[in-house]
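sry for the spam today, last one i promise. struct tokens for design, 111 residues
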């Protein structure tokens, strides 16, 4: 019984993460966003902050989900420039549906 509960919990916890890594792949976010990077790692020209860096920066802040959904849908520029030591810009990802953008943001913030 205890084993079954642990298994059910593991499935419940892991399912959203898998679903959103699939979303990240579907929209090719991974071209520019890694899951994690070592501190001081050199970045490609177009590379954005890693998902874990985004989570660290925003987790628990009020109203941040809407802000990040907007960043995805409308694009974002130079918010991360200082931290990443280069110019940073993400084009609007207009083809991401509202539902998928929401799921992606929730997933990123859960990392
Ligand atoms: C061509 C490269 C590229 C692609 C593709 C890309 N991003 Fe980004 N992303 C960036 C860069 C660069 C930044 C930093 C922008 C800034 O500093 O304002 C960023 C920032 C972000 C942020 C943080 C925004 C903020 O307000 O701090 C989120 C969340 C994000 N991206 C999610 C995504 C998701 C989800 C996708 C796929 C639908 C995606 N990105 C696709 C390059 C990219």
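last one done:
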């Amino acid at each position: 019984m205890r084993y079954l509960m642990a298994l059910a919990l593991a499935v419940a916890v892991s399912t959203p993460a898998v679903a959103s890594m699939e979303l990240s792949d579907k929209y090719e976010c991974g071209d520019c966003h890694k899951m994690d990077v070592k501190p001081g790692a050199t970045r490609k020209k177009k590379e954005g902050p890693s998902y874990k860096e985004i989570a660290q920066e925003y987790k628990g802040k009020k109203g941040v989900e809407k802000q990040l959904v907007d960043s995805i849908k409308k694009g974002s520029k130079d918010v991360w420039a200082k931290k990443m030591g280069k110019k940073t810009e993400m084009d609007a990802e207009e083809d991401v549906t509202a539902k998928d953008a929401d799921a992606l943001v929730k997933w990123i913030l859960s990392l």
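The longest helix spans residues 2-26. ok im logging off now
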